[in-house]
């Protein structure tokens, strides 16, 4: 590969945990739709919080293909999320 044309994946979004823009985009492609879901997948945004706005801008305001799953309480960051069972609430203590 031509060193001048190498892809830059070292642009840090979260310096606290060393998370790059490329990693955030990969998590988004895997189904993460919110900064909280990015944080669950990578810890980005969970320390000083200065990267949360950058993460929001990377995610954009477009539609989230897996939002419906999240709204139904199903996991959204797994390959077989559509087939996962809906978690049931815990029984209340007597």
Give the low-confidence spans: 1-7
| Percentage of residues in helical conformation | 25-40%
Approximately how much beta-strand content do the residues carry? Answer: 5-15%
Describe the strand arrangement of the main beta sheet, using strand numbers.
Answer: 1-2
Biggest β-sheet description: 2 strands, antiparallel
N- to C-terminal distance: 66 Å
Average of pLDDT: 76
Task: Give the radius of gyration.
Answer: 16 Å
The count of helical stretches stands at 4
SSE order, one letter for each helix or strand: EEHHHH
List keywords for this structure.
single chain, disordered N terminus, globular, 94 residues
Describe this structure as you would to a colleague.
With 94 residues, the protein is mostly helical. Helices cover 32% and strands 5% of the residues. Strands 1-2 form a two-stranded antiparallel sheet. A hairpin with a 4-residue loop joins strand 1 (12-14) and strand 2. The longest helix has 9 residues, at 21-29. It is globular. The termini are far apart.
Task: Describe the protein's topology.
Elements: E1 12-14, E2 19-20, H1 21-29, H2 35-42, H3 52-59, H4 67-71
Antiparallel strand pairs: 1-2
